[in-house]
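Figure 6 in text form: structure in, sequence out.
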């Protein structure tokens, strides 16, 4: 059950009365947040430093996760961002110790320091992912990186985008494996 001193706000969002939800001063005490269907935006700093949150389930209606919305939610270890999300704002998941993440191909805007990538271990990109991405602070297996390369959009004939995995991760790959990405006109750094 959702329990907090802002229970009325939570009831409102459950009824779909408001499209943007804000909590106040990090006073959100539930561990597993389920954002109701119909919500399209998570407001800036909505769940800022709500350290009790362990999981967030987004509805298919969500399109924007705004700046610092989950910043400081240090107990979130895994996140699935659904296809349809177009914007992830600056610092949206900063200081979250996320190890496993799905990043959708629907993204058109990814803010600086949206994630604390040093915690990343398993990153899955949506099919035809086509956005510059710097996740070089994480630690990945070869299999995880190959899955990322296979998901990248083929940008042959257009401007190359860059997937930054960092030198430690790149050192695990053969030239042939890196070629999967570069053959699609991606720079791998």
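Output sequence:
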């Amino acid at each position: 059950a959702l329990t907090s001193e802002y229970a009325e706000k939570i009831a409102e969002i459950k009824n779909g009365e408001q499209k943007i939800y804000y909590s106040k001063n990090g006073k959100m005490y539930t561990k597993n947040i389920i954002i109701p269907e119909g919500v399209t935006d998570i407001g800036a700093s909505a769940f800022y430093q709500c350290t009790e949150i362990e999981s967030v389930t987004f509805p298919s209606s969500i399109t924007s996760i705004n700046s610092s919305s989950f910043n400081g939610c240090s107990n979130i270890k895994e996140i699935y961002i659904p296809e349809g999300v177009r914007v992830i704002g600056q610092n949206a998941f900063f200081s979250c110790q996320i190890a496993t993440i799905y990043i959708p191909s629907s993204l058109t805007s990814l803010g600086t320091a949206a994630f604390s990538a040093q915690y990343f271990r398993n990153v899955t990109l949506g099919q035809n992912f086509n956005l510059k991405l710097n996740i070089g602070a994480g630690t990945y297996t070869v299999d995880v990186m190959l899955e990322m390369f296979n998901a990248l959009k083929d940008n042959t004939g257009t401007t190359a985008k860059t997937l930054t995995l960092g030198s430690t991760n790149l050192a695990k790959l053969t030239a042939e494996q890196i070629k999967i990405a570069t053959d699609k006109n991606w720079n791998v750094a």
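Caption detail: The CA atoms of residues 37 and 59 lie 5 Å apart.
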